[in-house]
Design a protein that fits this description.
heterodimer; A: 97 residues; mainly alpha; 4 helices; 75% helix; flat; B: 243 residues; 2 domains; Branched-chain amino acid transporter AzlC (chain B); Brnchd-chn_aa_trnsp_permease (chain B)
């Protein structure tokens, strides 16, 4: 039963990922569609960050927010992504002590 | 002789791209490991065997839906319910894959198809910000190395979580919940510094996403709506760009 669930989850996750690899070759996009698709990474980042970040500690949404602000600050001064991640983890950890 | 030199050049070019890909994938590994460990622990507690929970990571490779799947299995939900919920949650990868594959137009299908299967929120975010490799010689190796780094750390992390059980102290593992969000921020901020408009696109997407959740949409569809509608603002905002 669990195996059947895993195979099902695999198929419904694979198809949406795989389909574009086959269809982009068949399609020529207008300029505005290309601009749209080129904006997708930034839109996706936005949608993935907020409001999800508020649920890092579901009972205390401000902790995720503060961790996020620290990450913005560290990234703004030009630190490597690894250090941004480490700084945000440390911040949240200090708040939960 | 001449051929030999060319061969060597090609080889060093390949290995350079692979190394660059692993380096670009490294932050994803750091973000994935604690989450994969947690997934392994949780899946084990929900009654899955070590083989099953590792197999799920190998075959599905989509963090949020695996947590949900393990949780629903523990609650005794039906297979159809779990599979449909997975589809809804992961449909956002269609939009991301379309954007990424449009960048990789020049690449052969034998590379594009496997790369598309390795798309997650994180591998997409990092790959999509490395657009220049798409047109470089051996660029496919860069993306392959990046995705494999992420994939292996996800699969190995899940397995270890299942074997070792709860090894990370709870306070630390809870703090690590911010890791992937911080990574997304760390990826977004440098682009916004260079081009403020890109931040506006992200902001529109955030607001749409928050609004959809307020209206009672599921997380999966809200992210899809935020990404698609937020991306639409790029049709206007990116107009002057010569690309």
């Amino acid at each position: 039963m669990i195996l059947f669930i895993i195979v099902g989850m695999c198929i419904v996750t694979m198809i949406p990922r795989l389909l574009p690899a086959f269809i982009v070759d068949k399609l020529q996009f207008k300029d505005w569609v290309n601009r749209w698709l080129n904006a997708i990474p930034f839109a996706a980042l936005g949608a993935l960050i907020f409001p999800g970040i508020l649920s890092v500690r579901p009972d205390q949404p401000h902790i995720g927010l503060i961790g996020g602000l620290v990450a913005i600050g560290l990234a703004y001064i030009g630190l490597n992504v690894i250090l941004v991640v480490a700084g945000a983890i440390a911040t949240v950890f200090l708040f939960t002590l | 002789m001449n051929e030999n030199i060319l061969d060597k050049q090609e080889q060093s070019n390949s290995s350079r791209m692979i190394k660059k890909g692993i380096a670009a994938g490294f932050p994803i590994m750091v973000g994935y490991l604690p989450i994969a460990l947690t997934y392994g622990v949780l899946a084990k507690q929900s009654g899955m065997t070590l083989t099953e929970l590792t197999l799920m990571s190998v075959m599905v490779f989509a963090g949020a839906s695996q947590f949900m799947g393990a949780n629903m299995i523990a609650l005794g939900a039906g297979a159809a319910e779990i599979i449909i919920a997975t589809f809804v949650l992961n449909f956002r990868h269609f939009v991301m894959s379309l954007s990424f594959m449009n960048r990789l137009r020049g690449m052969e299908l034998k590379w594009k198809a496997p790369l598309s299967l390795g798309l997650t929120d994180e591998t997409f975010a990092v790959s999509a910000l490395h657009t220049e490799e798409a047109n470089k010689d051996k660029g496919a190796l860069f993306y392959t190395a990046l995705i494999l780094t992420a994939y292996l750390s996800w699969v190995i992390g899940s397995f270890l979580g299942g074997v070792l059980g709860d090894i990370i102290p709870e306070k630390l593992s809870q703090s690590m919940g911010i890791a992937l969000y911080a990574m997304f921020i760390g990826l977004l901020v440098p682009s916004v510094k260079k081009e403020f408009k890109l931040g506006l696109i992200a902001l529109v997407a955030m607001l749409i996403n928050a609004l959809c959740i307020q209206l009672g949409m599921s997380t999966g569809w809200a992210i899809v709506a935020g990404t698609i509608i937020g991306g639409m603002s790029g049709i206007y905002l990116l107009k002057e760009e010569v690309k």
